[in-house]
Write a structure and sequence with these properties.
The chain starts with a strand and ends with a helix. A hairpin with a 5-residue loop joins strand 3 and strand 4. The radius of gyration is 16 Å and the shape is globular. A 4-stranded mixed beta sheet has the order 1-5-2-6. A two-stranded antiparallel ribbon has the order 3-4. Helix content is about 35%, strand content about 25%. By secondary structure, the protein is an alpha+beta fold. The chain has 6 helices and 6 strands.
Length: about 160
């Protein structure tokens, strides 16, 4: 679909906040020269999630672009406790970036990690990272589905309560 910009909310992130989507949209409109995409992230405080291979972690350069994505805990906790960041399944692409993404071949990191945003990084393109307020509730396992169902029931009950 031709457009100047595209926003992708991954299907495994059913509770992404509308405010986070708006923030990615705004960042996409004001993206720095050289970056092709915006990817939302949030801080990761849960030690279990840090070790979970379903949770994609990101390390960010000083300029705000992604340096690396991994399903492993990065950075490695040697010495001080590192700050872990969770990539959210919320992306913004320029129209040009999305066309380029389709043309670029998968690199070895993308194939190994199964993280599509690595395609831009492996080919030398910037991915602007944007911190958003989000609980990061993704549905990757049957246990996640049960937790998401309970969360949805709770939210519906709160909404319907007088």
């Amino acid at each position: 679909m031709p457009a100047d910009a595209h926003i992708n909310v991954q299907g495994d992130e059913p509770f992404i906040s509308p405010a986070a989507i708006d923030a990615v949209s705004e960042a996409l409109e004001n993206m720095a020269h050289g970056a092709l995409a915006v990817n939302a992230y949030t801080e990761l405080d849960d030690a279990v999630a840090v070790l979970d291979h379903n949770v994609v972690k990101v390390v960010i350069e000083a300029n705000g672009n992604a340096l690396m994505f991994s399903r492993q805990p990065i950075p490695y906790p040697r010495g001080d406790r590192p700050r872990y960041l969770r990539q959210l399944g919320l992306y913004g692409f320029t129209g040009t970036a999305l066309r380029l993404f389709q043309q670029l071949p998968q690199g070895p990191l993308e194939r190994t990690e199964g993280v599509e945003m690595l395609r831009f990084i492996e080919h030398g393109h910037g991915v602007r990272m944007l911190c958003v307020a989000d609980d990061g509730l993704a549905v990757d396992t049957p246990e996640d589905l049960a937790r998401a169902s309970a969360t949805l029931r709770s939210r519906v009950a709160r909404h319907l309560s007088p």
